[in-house]
Write a structure and sequence with these properties.
Helix content is 0%, strand content 62%. The protein is built from no helices and 10 strands. It is globular and about 30 Å long. Residues 4-83 form the ATP synthase F1 complex delta/epsilon subunit N-terminal domain.
């Protein structure tokens, strides 16, 4: 099973880091999911929820006001100015 190596940062701290099965982000052109083995991607983020779905099915949700996401060779970097506290979801 392939996975994504995710690093989620703000300007002053690491918000979340680890492996995930999928990441869903609110891009300015609409929300989209990032899966392992996808083409390299770079997108500007809009206001909305970033959802990180772990390999065990647990979900971490953070609210963001903008930023960017990049993905290349199953490495995902999410950089934002601010992110709200995590909310557990199923």
């Amino acid at each position: 099973m392939s996975s994504l190596e995710v690093t989620f940062v703000t300007s002053d701290r690491t918000v979340w880091t680890g492996t995930a099965a999928q990441v869903v982000v609110p891009a300015v052109d609409g929300s989209f999911g990032i899966l392992p083995r996808m083409q390299p991607t770079l997108a500007i983020l809009d206001r909305g929820s970033v959802r990180i779905i772990a390999e065990d099915g647990s979900v971490t949700v953070r609210e963001v006001e903008g930023g960017f996401v990049s993905m290349d060779q199953d490495v995902v970097t999410i950089a934002v100015d601010q992110a709200s506290r995590a909310v557990a979801a199923n």
